[in-house]
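Structure ticket #2291
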Amino acid sequence: MRHNRVILTLAGASALAVGTAVLLPMAAQATTEAVACNETALVTAVTGANAAGGGTVTLTPGCTYTLATSHGNDGVNGPAGLPIITTPITFEGNANVITRFPAAAAFRIVQVGTTGGVTFKAVKVTNGHAAATGHNDGGGILSFGAVTLTGGELSGNVADGLGGALYSTGVPAAATFTSSTVKSNIANRGGGIASVNGTLTITSSTVTINTAAVNPGGIYYQAGSASLNTSTVTANVATNCSGSPSPVPGCIG
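Resolution: structure written out below.
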């Protein structure tokens, strides 16, 4: 009788294992639903990610998200197209574009708060315009937190102040570019990138054809730290990095 009990117990464990084995593949099939290809859906997704303390916003492959109005404004730094990023949010892209509607009022695309961080993967951020009087830095992105661009592009953005593509500032601020391009942006100074008292790291990337009224046209760098790793800063007007308050290591001209 004891022998039978052992056999029954083992059989029950075996059945449980089989049931578990059947359930696991089903759980593994769960996927993150892509954000529908429209402005409302994207804004809702960013708002939800902020409320959740951060997360991943998966974009519809190949979609261009066009922002017709601003959805973020802290009352100090002027309007931003997306809600202000206050938590760590990753935009998981696949040949995506986030842009301002050409006829829309001027606003930058993204503002990152001191507690926030934004990661763009395979995303182009374009046609932002920072024009608010006295708060006109960062045409594409204004960041007081962390910005990471991987396999992406910042292009066609305008800042009436510093940093056509990006203005990154403050002790918590860190901007990291990997296998990315910063091109054809315009600013009063620092047509491509402006980094002030932050950390700037550019790896396997290109900063090119950016324009500034006052040099440098490529990278404006003041205090903090900056590094160029297998990256090029070329064909920017006026100058690539010359005239920056601090020398950009490895940047010529």
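Closing remark: The chain has two domains: 1-30, 32-234.
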